[in-house]
Design a protein that fits this description.
The complex is a heterodimer. By secondary structure, chain A is an alpha+beta fold. Chain A is built from 17 helices and 18 strands. Chain A folds into three domains: about 170 residues, D-Maltodextrin-Binding Protein, domain 2, CATH 3.40.190; about 130 residues, Dipeptide-binding Protein, Domain 1 (Dipeptide-binding Protein, domain 1); about 220 residues, Dipeptide-binding Protein, Domain 3 (Dipeptide-binding Protein, domain 3, Roll), CATH 3.10.105.10. In chain A, the strands form five sheets. Chain A has a six-stranded mixed beta sheet with strand order 12-16-11-15-13-14. A four-stranded mixed beta sheet of chain A has the order 1-10-9-8, with helices on one face. In chain A, helix 10 packs antiparallel against helix 12 and helix 16 packs antiparallel against helix 17. The longest helix of chain B has about 35 residues. The mean pLDDT of chain B is about 90. The chains are: A alpha+beta, B mainly alpha. At the A-B interface, helix 1, helix 8 and helix 14 of A face helix 2, helix 4 and helix 6 of B.
Chain lengths: ~550, ~300
């Protein structure tokens, strides 16, 4: 055949070229064994979701911000790399009084900010004063004022004298914190949450008022860090580079030279960056890619349990969800095994209780049991045998392919198993959240991700006046049990109370648990010292790269 | 001419005022606000946050405050990014989008006009089919398909470029090409149409009869008239291309302003939404004015009238 047309010739050349390269390209990733060091330097390139709001630990709220905080700042306590339990951080040790209300932290005598100045107990007190300042309006102020004596009063403006709030610098290196009640999980918050992270108040004050969020102290060259790394470069929407902090107390054990965080908003772009070797680790992996990775590059695919639950929230003041038998029938008629196998497909665990199957040694005994037969019986008892007379109700979710697929599957299960019809409604994220918080829904998709590893996280939100309950569900027995947990002597006693709370949730079903989350991402096998953890926190000083 | 420009200036100012006012109130009436989050903040914290940003004042007061600061050239603080002002964000990101835009515009103009002209003078030959085919494909296949295909071919398989980023000059190539092609396609079709119309007119025949070379006929006589449709298309197109493309900037991880048009609305970052809308409105108005002037220059039949 003679090819006359140059156009056709061009098309043929291009298509052969691409076809040929297709195989090479796919093979590259696997053959390279993954991205390692950069010319022998320990530089970790990591996808980090979105552009951070800021790098001020007291002015941020999101997960990408948290990942950066873990590099730049350290709390009084830090996290164990494997199970995240609190380990010494800025404080080398601490004592808790026998009544659990007074915490005494001993700061490291050699603890320094990245500019070389000492980290003192007075810095800590000033930091807590800043996060509690009403004008400053820190979103996470409640993680401090819920626990510390006088803090709420100060936050509400009723108490003007901060010296009456339960923070005292006993000397340069001793900080005493007095709590309202014993709070057995507080050390986990202090270890895992940036709300409790001391900030360099003296430096912030150089660049503007302490009670203004827009004080520009977090720019490169200004930001003073306390963590294993310090800020080197911040190119908005491109990347943030952190480099070793030589003044960090444990600098000798920090293995990475630099971390480059990329705000990879689009997860398909991120996956392509991973394939061209621009990243060691992605933040997420598109669902559509999971199967291909399973098949072709299993050593790059990571799927790890994530401490969170995906559920449907019932508005219990809207009939027919006012009847707990209806709620439970709906909960029982979902085939969760099939859902995670065929729809979500990311190795998620089916959820038969609200609490996570294993949280810091707590395993909920209560489970949704009885299956379809029980579901049908309950629905009939509630006056809707085989779904007859059941009004059409609406399920609200935020616009997303994945949520829609799950909703459609469950819609079908309910139709097939119970004869119940529901309609689906999707809304843009903030509109959907507004509907949730104003309780303008009947059934609503929800999710809850833990900030620290304790069963408390999943149970506190269903208390009557909790701002995230949003179900109109209120149970006096549940609320009483919750108060008892705060006074529990030890974890064993506390966990027994949680068992009762979980049992009430399974019996009443104000929320219908569906599955427990998984983190799904791609990572080069040459990243070492990185362990799967329930919060997806990975203290960076333990991480290193192979060649 | 002077009267035309001053009249248009005041008309634009009025239109801008309407745009600002409408946007200000519309964005406020959308459900959800800048602090609406999955983990709800407590009512005490929400009160303090609103006070911090002046959202606790009556809406009309906030509106007047905003207009006041706008007069001083201050677009206000961003709600989403507490340590950055809207002025800073636009100042940082507009140049990036503009750089990408100018590169793409260059590609689009050179590629589009050449192909369109070629198609017109070689009408109904393979060159015409090729150019028209390119035009059709370029218009029909969206950038969110072309972008990833180019990355797949040139970054992943051939390894010539990074998959995304905006660090080196090589990083400019793929996004500029993809965006350039997207604009080259309609330009080539408009040029072809415009040229065909002009090439059939009497003055072209006269030029040919006087023995002008084909190149002279096309470049000197026909192109000036043939480009008229392109010029009117370019006004809004240039405003669009300079203020960035959400798709291209997302696919290639480019720190441009295009993404902020969309994400600021999702974030309910009221001041940033307004900032981007004002920016776009001003550019559109300015460029339309330029287009009118250029058209008058290209086509003696067009008169600038106030």
């Amino acid at each position: 055949m003679r090819i006359r047309s140059p156009l056709l010739l061009g098309i043929l050349i291009v298509s052969f070229g691409l076809g040929g390269c297709g195989k090479n390209g796919s093979a590259n990733l696997a053959a390279s064994g993954g991205k390692g060091t950069d010319n022998g330097r320990q530089i970790w390139h990591v996808g980090n979701g979105t552009e951070p709001q800021d790098l001020d630990p007291q002015a941020i709220t999101g997960v990408p911000e948290h990942k950066l905080m873990m590099a730049l700042f350290e709390g009084l306590a830090s996290e164990d790399p494997k199970d995240l339990h609190p380990v010494p951080g800025l404080a080398e040790k601490w004592e808790i009084s026998p009544d659990g209300r007074v915490y005494t932290f001993h700061l490291r005598p050699n603890g320094k900010w990245s500019d070389g100045s000492p980290i003192t107990a007075a810095d800590c007190v000033q930091s807590y004063r800043r996060i509690l300042t009403p004008n400053f309006a820190s979103e996470y102020a409640y993680l401090v004022y819920d626990y510390v004596v006088g803090a709420k009063e100060f936050y509400d403006g009723k108490l003007k004298d901060f010296s009456q709030v339960g923070f005292k610098a006993l000397d340069d290196h001793t900080l005493q914190v007095t709590l309202k009640n014993a709070s057995p999980y507080l050390m986990k918050i202090i270890g895992s949450h940036y709300a409790w992270t001391p900030v360099p108040v003296r430096v912030i004050a150089k660049y503007g008022p302490l009670d203004q969020k827009r004080t520009p102290w977090t720019k490169p060259g200004r930001l003073v860090a306390s963590g294993p790394f310090q800020l080197k470069e911040w190119l908005p929407n491109q990347k943030i580079v952190v480099t070793r902090n030589p003044n960090y107390w444990d600098a000798a054990n920090v293995k990475l030279d630099e971390i480059h965080f990329y705000p990879t908003e689009d997860i398909s772009t991120e996956e392509r960056m991973f394939r061209t070797g621009q990243l060691h680790k992605t933040n997420e992996l598109p669902n559509a890619k999971i199967d291909a990775y399973r098949r072709e590059f299993p050593e790059f695919l990571r799927m790890e349990p994530y401490l969170g639950v995906y559920f449907y929230r019932c508005n219990v003041s809207r009939p027919p969800l006012t009847d707990k038998r209806v709620r439970k029938a709906l909960a029982l008629a979902i085939d969760r095994e099939s859902l995670v196998k065929n729809v979500t497909r990311g190795g998620q665990r089916p959820a038969y209780a609200v609490s996570y199957p294993d949280t810091a040694g707590y395993v909920p005994r209560a489970k949704l049991t009885g299956g379809l037969a029980e579901a049908k019986r309950l629905l009939a008892e509630a006056g809707f045998p085989d779904g007859k007379g059941f009004p059409s109700i609406e399920l609200l979710y935020n616009t997303s392919e994945n949520h829609r697929a799950i909703a459609e599957a469950i819609q079908q299960m309910w139709k097939r198993n119970l004869g119940v019809d529901i309609t689906l409604l999707n809304q843009e994220w903030k509109v959907y959240l507004d509907s949730q918080h104003t309780k303008n829904f009947t059934l609503q998709r929800g999710g809850w991700i833990a900030d620290y590893v304790d069963p408390h996280v999943f149970l506190e939100i269903w208390v009557t006046d909790n701002g995230n309950n949003d179900t109109n569900w209120s149970n006096a027995g549940y609320d009483r049990l919750f108060l008892q947990t705060l006074a529990a002597k030890d974890d064993q006693e506390r966990y027994e109370i949680y068992q009762k709370m979980d049992a009430i949730l399974v019996d009443e079903c104000p929320i219908i648990p569906i599955y427990h989350y998984n983190r799904i991402y791609a990572m080069s096998p040459k990243v070492k010292g990185y362990y799967p953890t329930l919060l997806d926190n990975h203290p960076y000083k333990y991480i290193y790269l192979e060649k | 001419m002077f009267r035309f420009i001053t009249t248009r200036f005041f008309q634009s100012l009025l239109a801008l005022f309407v745009v600002i006012s409408a946007t200000f109130f519309m964005v406020r009436f959308v459900p959800g606000g800048p602090f609406t989050a999955e983990k709800a903040v407590t009512p005490e914290i929400l009160r303090n946050l609103e006070a911090h940003y002046g959202l606790d004042k009556p809406l009309w007061r906030q509106y007047l405050d905003y207009l006041g600061s706008l007069m001083r050239g201050d677009l206000g603080p961003s709600f989403k990014y507490p340590n950055r002002t809207v002025n800073e964000i636009i100042g940082d990101k507009l140049p990036v989008s503009a750089e990408l835009g100018l590169l793409s515009l260059g590609i689009a103009l050179v590629g589009g006009i050449t192909l369109g002209t070629l198609a017109a003078i070689k009408r109904n030959t393979w060159a015409d089919y090729l150019a028209s085919g390119f035009g059709m494909i370029g218009i029909s296949v969206p950038t969110f398909v072309v972008g990833p295909l180019f990355v797949l071919a040139f970054a992943i398989h051939l390894g010539w470029f990074n998959a995304s980023g905006w660090y080196t000059s090589a990083d400019r190539v793929l996004p500029a090409l993809v965006l350039g092609i997207a604009y080259a396609a309609p330009i080539s079709r408009l040029t072809r149409g415009g040229m065909l119309e002009v090439l059939h007119q009497d003055f072209i025949r006269t030029a040919r009869a006087k023995g002008a070379s084909e190149a002279r006929v096309v470049l000197r006589h026909a192109l000036r008239g043939g480009l008229l449709p392109v010029v009117s298309y370019l006004g809004p197109a240039v405003a669009g291309i300079l203020t960035g493309s959400f798709v291209i900037e997302t696919i290639f991880q480019i720190p441009g302003i295009g993404r902020e048009f969309v994400t600021s609305a999702f974030n309910r970052d009221y001041t940033l939404v307004l900032g981007t809308v004002i920016l776009y409105a001003v550019l559109i108005m300015a460029l339309n004015l330029v287009v009118d002037i250029v058209q008058a220059w290209l086509n003696p039949k067009v008169q600038l009238e106030a």
